[in-house]
Amino acid sequence: MSSHNSPDDMNNHSRNIAASQVPFQVPLEVNIILIGFSGDGGYRYTLNSQKLQEFLQVGFPTHRPSCLETGEPLYIEHHMVFNAIPVGQPEVIALEKALKAAMVPAGISRETDFGREVPVFEINATAVEPEFQKLYSYMFYFENIGYSIEEIDRPMPTAIFIVNFDKV
């Protein structure tokens, strides 16, 4: 018997290495929540949610995360699934109302270098978060989301809120 590897052994070894470098395939669903883009927000903009969804799907079909410490790609690859979801005017109004109630005067600013002075406001995110949480719960059928063991272990939909409020 010979102590060297046969060509078949080398091919099997190469295939095993190549197979181990193929990232684990995992779908990742991302919900894009469009607020104020049905002609009911700032500047009465409209955004076709179906076209946005198609654009994101074509532009970002996959995502491969990297290790924060080393920058090396992880052996996982997400196959992205995007859902663009417009919300109705009642939800826009409720969120605008919460935003207006949370506004705290923070000084003045100029519109342009030589423009008129306008008031500046700050908003503490925790003051409007409950209204966004209500919308999230309503959209994804979660009642009173808490932090029990069952709820922490339960998969939660990923949502990105894109907001276009009218002047509040």
TrEMBL record:
Listed name of the protein: DUF7906 domain-containing protein
Species this protein is from: Lactuca virosa
Domain annotation DUF7906: ranges: 26-166
Source species, domain of life: Eukaryota
InterPro entries in the cross-refs: DUF7906 (IPR057228)
Pfam families: DUF7906
